[in-house]
What does this fold into?
Amino acid sequence: MEHDNKLDNTLSRLINDPLSIVSILFLGTIFINITYVVFPLFVNTIIKNPFFPEYFTTFKMGFPYLFLGVLVFIRSKIAYFMGVLISFLLMIHPIVFDNAYFVITFYLFLWLFVKDENHSIFLGRLLISFIFFGAAVGKLTPGWMSGEQLNNIVILRKIPSVSLVIIGEFLVAISFLLPFYIASLISIFILIGMTLSMDNGVIISATQPILGMILTFLSIVSMKKSELKLYFHQDQKHSNFVYLFFEIFKINNITLIKFKNDNIVKSAKSMLVKKGYIIQGQNENGEFLYGFDCYAEIISRTALLAFLFPLFKLKNHTFISR
Amino acid sequence: MKYARIAVYLMVVVYTLLALLKPKKIYVDRFTHDIGFIEWALLQPFPTMYSSESILKVSFGRDRSVWYLCHHPMKPIINRNYIFLDSVTYELTVRYRGYKTVKKFIVFKDSLYTSLE
It folds into this structure.
């Protein structure tokens, strides 16, 4: 029983923390990188190279890299600092220093390390823009502009125009100056486009943590903190099942109330019973919410999904979904 | 932590200025390893993300050589999958706007030797 409670608490912490989005996506990159990064770090022997100090030849970074997947879930500054340090060591390691993925890992942990209670969203956005600034400025060369360099990257699918790549990177580079929601939308669109433009999705390991950061910012900004009451009809089989689901995840700012036909508040009774929905909500103003509106309110309080809430507020979407 | 945040903002400003005012260091020398290790390590956090232009000529013995463009200059040299002979010569050209560096690498029995041309 105690074990179950611990599991429930872990699940609850995971679902109520917006940073879980970036943590989960980052963990995903470690699995994606098994062939490209993890395997070489364990298997490849280092070519003796006078450029690197000698101690690097015995410098095994396989396990520390895997440990990053744990550190990103530990909500502690020490863990994040270790993440910064390990990422930096991987950036200068003779086997993987060419991998741009560790630059992103480095900035992700750096943001986690220096952020304040309000999550320093602007700083996070600036770091994402900075990553793309370096990439875009580096591509302003005749070879890149003519498409010669791009066309010879074997992992790349066909792209209509090389300008798309450079303009896309520049747009993300200036995104920290744009309004938050517009900048997020543009960045997400470009990151997904970049990922799809690569064969076998090899770039996904680099785009995924950035996407995770953007979705985390969106969740933090979009999350509602006011209380939502959810009513569940005790005599309905489906309603009881959904109640159990909410009880396990314990979403913050959501109160669960079970009711029977005879003990419900009189004013609410007719609405709740007549509609026959599995869940009915009541917001902080006392308004009853059904169907789409109720689900939207639940999503706005679920840290892991709150980034979807701005979509729910779009007028056309609301009209069609209702 | 407030000072750490200020340091990160400063870091972004310094790297941005470096990329604009000293592009050769970041987009050429860093890829050809023509700077000291410590300086190179300090420049590594600058996100170039496979920028610059690089051409690699790989020679197998006297008569056979292959030219190709690569998105990261050091990739074929550091990755052992590319090294399947006892002795392989690489000629690497890295260009960024008006800057150009040609460098030769020789891998001989698990050791890498370099020479500037």
Q: What stands out?
A: The mean pLDDT of chain B is 82. Helices of chain B lie at 2-21, 23-32, 37-43, 75-78. Strands of chain B lie at 53-60, 64-69, 87-96, 99-108, 111-116. Residues 59 and 65 of chain B are 4 Å apart (CA to CA).
